[in-house]
Amino acid sequence: MRSGQDNRMNELGEPSSRVLLVMALVWPGAGQCLQKRWLAGTIYAVGFLLTVIAAFAYGIRILSAWYSLIEGDITETNILRMHAWKMLLFFLLSIILWIVSIVDMCAVHVARRRKELQEPGLPGPGEDVRRSRS
After folding, report:
1. How many CA atoms lie within 13 Å of 37's alpha carbon, on the beta-carbon side?
2. Contacts of the segment 122-126: beta carbons below 8 A, 24+ positions apart
3. Report field, pTM of the whole predicted structure over 0.85
4. Angle 26-30-35 (CA atoms, 0-180°, nearest 5)?
């Protein structure tokens, strides 16, 4: 822990790794927004919201169809037309989107930390050492 500094922020005024990770776990896209990557954060957040809404919409349709079958309002053939795989597909897409947003946020954070910690005059990753000395 750095003495005299708020450990929630780094030297560049960006949130610490813990804050970013917690926010990314709470809602996809929140970590990107804390990194001031507004477009990526909005895409992840809205994409996640839409896939979750679609999964719940299919789930509600399936539950209402089963309830109607129990009440005797519809026949069993209508239930067979309800595809649970669509609900599961949207749920799986939301989980994948969540994981991708966490990986993206962590990759950008690590790249920024490397750049921040790199000493001036030293070659960066992938740079030719011979060219940087001349």
Report:
1. 22
2. none
3. no
4. 135
